[in-house]
Amino acid sequence: MGKHRLPEPVLRRHVRTSGSMSKLSRALGIALTPASVGPLERRPYPPGQHGRSRRKESDYRLRLLEKQRLRAQYAVSEAQLRRTLATASRSGAKTGEVLVEELERRLDAVVLRSGIARTVQQARQFVSHGHVQVNGRTVDRPSYRVEVLDVVRVAPASRSLAPFVVAAAGGNAPEHVPPHLEVVLPALTVGVVARPRRAELPVVCDEQLVVEHYSR
């Protein structure tokens, strides 16, 4: 069993350490932060002495890679992803699509997509430090699930802090804001106007392979 497994402790360590996000981006083949775009373009292969070598990937490794990509893009733990998958599997709809849509309802994901935060790690920090409110109430859980008609905003007392001044000026503005969000960056406010839809989300992942990974 052990000979077929990828070193998932490496994924956990990289997700928690912002300085290694470029290495993780290269390992997964996707840019996880704006700062990792350049290194990935210059060296579009995994780090390490064998990074350039090409080898045939097993079905297991391909499915595991997709799961790692999804985890990294939302910076969620293995347990969090499993719980979200369990919720998605009970929905009656396509499990993979619902899985991504449920992850997108996380408060830290909303803060990221709106342009208030530059990376998902920064979004998690903003929420956990009490800088974000939902419907006027401070919420410090990045995993909090937003609902349609919720209003997410930066707490008034936090708006003068440098990261939020940059955000309000459009410094983190994404190229594309998913249509389920209505963003007013100068006011550091986000309205949730619909449920997220997988086809409209900028997530690089074959979610069906993630479902198959857990179904094996």
UniProtKB/TrEMBL annotation:
Alphabetical keyword list: Ribonucleoprotein, Ribosomal protein, RNA-binding, rRNA-binding
Keyword Ribonucleoprotein in annotation: yes
PROSITE patterns noted in UniProt: RIBOSOMAL_S4, S4
Domain of life: Bacteria
Residue ranges, annotated region (Disordered): 35-58
Gene Ontology cellular component annotations, sorted alphabetically: ribosome
Subunit description: Part of the 30S ribosomal subunit. Contacts protein S5. The interaction surface between S4 and S5 is involved in control of translational fidelity.
PANTHER family according to UniProt: 30S 40S RIBOSOMAL PROTEIN, SMALL RIBOSOMAL SUBUNIT PROTEIN US4M
Protein's name in the database: Small ribosomal subunit protein uS4
Source organism (scientific name): Aquipuribacter hungaricus
